[in-house]
Design brief:
With 115 residues, this protein is an alpha+beta fold. It is built from 2 helices and 7 strands. The protein has one domain: Pleckstrin-homology domain (PH domain)/Phosphotyrosine-binding domain (PTB) (PH-domain like, Roll), CATH 2.30.29. Strands 4-3-2-1-7-6-5 form a 7-stranded antiparallel beta sheet.
Length: 115
């Protein structure tokens, strides 16, 4: 949806309800991009540069989002671990994101999860 970040690839009746710049912890690195919330899914789209260097797209049906919270800093220099990260517990495991205004993001995503 822009010069730096690709299209989230929405379904025909799907719209973006909320979006936020974010870095997703992927292995030992933080991948820059944007986190999108729709009526039914949460998606992460990496920047074009991060995509070329191995950054992966990610998506999750909201029905598989179990909890939203914080992950304390763990010292990971390149994985975003120098900051408190957004923690998403899902049916498939845990996802971590570096975001600004983490309390607002938690409230937004928790409200979407609750319905």
């Amino acid at each position: 949806m822009g010069l730096w970040i690709g299209n989230p690839g929405l379904g025909p009746s799907e719209t973006v309800r909320w979006q936020k710049l974010a870095n997703r912890t992927q292995g030992s690195r933080a991948v820059g991009g944007r986190l999108y919330l729709t009526e039914s899914r949460l998606l992460f789209v990496p920047t074009h540069l991060d995509s070329v260097t191995g950054g992966k797209r990610w998506e999750l049906p909201l029905a598989q989002l179990r909890s939203v919270g914080r992950q304390n800093a763990d010292g990971g220099l390149f994985s975003g671990g120098l900051r408190t990260r957004l923690r998403l517990d899902t049916d498939a495991g845990t996802e971590l994101f570096v975001v600004n205004d983490i309390d607002e993001v938690i409230a937004e995503l928790d409200a979407a999860r609750s319905g």
